[in-house]
Each structure stands twice: as structure tokens, then as C-alpha cells.
Fold:
Amino acid sequence: MRTLRIRTFTMLCFCFILLLPWIFFITAHYMETKSLRFANSQLQNETLQKQLTGTIHLIEAGAGKWRDPNWQNQLHEELQKAKMDVVIQSASDLDIYRSNPERRGALSSTERFSVIEDGILLGRVTLYVPKSNTVQMISAFAGILLAFFVVGVEMRRFLLKPLEKMSAAARQLAAGDWDVKLPLSRITEIAEVRDGFEVMVKGLQQSYQKQVELEEERRFVIAAVAHDLRTPLFALRGYLDGLEQGIAQTPEKITKYVAVCKEKSAQLDRLVEELFTFTKLEYLGTTLSNKAVDLNLILRKSIDSLSPLARQKHISISNHAADDCVISGDTHLLERVMNNLLDNAVRHTPSYGEIVVQCYKDGNKIMFTIRDTGPGFSSEELQRVFEPLYRGEASRNRSTGGSGLGLTISQRIVRRHGGELAVSNHSVGGALLTGWIPVNHPS
Structure:
């Protein structure tokens, strides 16, 4: 839809107001004179003046014949030719002759004079002379009124109504109703305001939707955290009560109770730490340090830290990392990613299983994969494995020691570095985690 600038619209309205009265004036002039030449008007004025002079002379010369019907007929013919009317009154103001009893002076000018002979007042004469441009002026005035009416209607249509509708839309939006209909306008400035208003509405709607989603996630996290904290706390309190009440009487039983308490406190410590990391990444935001990081070195450190747990389960970890896996990123956060991924693989790999780690450069990306020989992911887990606090266990027990945040945190750290992390099942069985990070990523 083509639009007009408001100054162009204003100029068009101004030209319309000036032009329409002139058109009306020309039309009235043509209808009266049958010509578009204004020189005829001057000629008509001269003719009218001659007719007026002749009529006055006829009335003055025939003062003694005012009541003669033949003279009155002669005067009437002259008046019709000149399109004039006359009223002749006696000295006592009584009508002697009136050419047109219905005549009114609204559209004509009057000429008044008295007829005196030998010092005696014979009568008074009133001549009604037609105005030469009365019809044209009335037409021009009508054109002005019509022009203002049309301009007012168009201004309301193009300016006022769209603004009123946008004002109503703003109040509707403030009331929480997002289903607003914004008006169209042929005025460029109003159309631009409408487009900006539409962008604002979409932004507010997206922001509101995200706020609703965050609120739902916050409620879910609070409920899940309350459950996850309650379980180890309940067990910890039970074993501590057992120690306090002397239920564990033998050294072996005391050692078992203390070991369980340490395990539950470690679970609590791990959960609180991962919740803190998740909160910083999701809500508070963290500034990445942009330094050269050797991903091969990070993988070796993570494998070394998890080797004791792997040896307990007789799990072999094979590292096939290349030497050129250097990227730009945050060392601490990337260590957290690899620790989470390898810890997840060790916990879900059965005894005498195997974990294979690979890292290599592919163009401008550093690719890494971690494959285990565990049970892999179910179809539901493949869709929800990165959801916060999701572990795919109906009872939400902690037999594997997971918090449900490790993969979520890892994926968000990788994305913060400009990369991506995905999960799948390997063709020969087991879970496969695949990720990539660009070599150079601005902080």
C-alpha cells in the first residue's frame, strides 16, 4: 500500500481548499455568462450602467405618466431587458407602481432617488439592480464550505481514526489482551508508528511468554530441588539418629553408618554446587574468559580424576584426542563440561564396560565425542535429557548419584562458547555424546 508523508497530505488538503472554491466560482460564472472569459464581466457592467442610466432618465422624464398603464408597460419592458425592478412611491410614500411585488433585495443592490420638479417632490424611486457577481461569490463560499468538510472527513479518516485505534490498542494491551488489531494508514508517519507498535507488541508478547516459561521452570526447579534435597537429608538424619541412639553398636556398623552419611553429604554438596552453576548460567549470567584452551589437556585431567571410580567398576577409558585441539574459551567452564560428561558416562556404564573419548579438529571446529557401553538413551530421554533436573528415572532415586543438571549445564556452557552438544545412541550400543566448539569464539 502506497503511503503519503504527512506534509504532502497537508499540502494536498491546502491546495484542495484553495482550488475547490475557484472551481465553483468558474462554474457559476460559466453558467451565468455562457463563457469562461472574465472580460465579458466588465462589458456586462458597462451595459448594466447604460441600462440603469436609461431607466432613470425614462422614469424622470415620464413623471407625469407614472399612473398611465401604457407608460408602465413600456417601463416594464425596459426593466425586463435590464433584469431590474422598480418601486415608485408618491410624496406621501404610497405605492404608485411596483414592477415585481415579490422582489426582495437579497441578491441585488438598490438605487434610491427622488424626483423633484419646480421645487415640488413628485415621488421617490427605488431601483433594484442585480449584482454582477453575486451568484459566483455564493458558489465560491459554498465551495469553501464543501472543501473544509471534505478535508475534515479525510483528515479524520487518514489521521485521527488510526491514532484513536492505536490508542485503544495500547489500552487493550495494558489490560493484558494481546489480541490487538492495529489499523492501516496511508500516512507514512502513522504507518511507521504502527509498524513500530507492532514490533513492540510482538516483543512484549515474546517477553511475557518467556516470563511465563521461566516462572513455570522456576516452580518446577523449586519443587524438584525440594524433593532432591529432602531424600538425602532424610537418609542422613536417619543414620545420624541411629548413631546418636546407639543403634550402631559394632565398629563395622558404625563405619557403615558414617560411610552412608558421607555419601549423602557428598550428594548434597554436589547438588548444591550444580544448582549454583545452573543459576549463574541461566539467570545471573557469567562472563567468559577468552583464553587459549587445550581441550586435549582438559580431557586428560578429567579422565585422571575419574580413573579411581572407573577402576572400581573395572571400566576402561580410551583417549584418542589429537594434539591440535586448541580453542578460545573459559578453562574452568570447559573443565566442568568434560567432568560432567565423563562422570555421566562412568556412572551409567556397567562393570567391565568401556568408554571411548575422541577429540579432533574439523575445519574451524573442534569436535569431541564420548561413547560408553551402557544401556543408552530411551526415546523419551533423547528428547528430554537436557531438561533441568530430568534423569529419566520414575522414582527419581539417586542410585547412580546424578543430580539431573550435569547435561543441562554442559550443553549451556558449550552453547555459550558458540558450539553445540547433542546425544544419541551408538550403532553398536551405548550412549554417544557429540559436541563441537569453534576454534575462535569472541567472549
Observations:
- The CA atoms of residues 29 and 35 lie 7 Å apart.
- Residues 393-401 have pLDDT under 50 and may be disordered.
- The chain is about 55% helix and 15% strand.
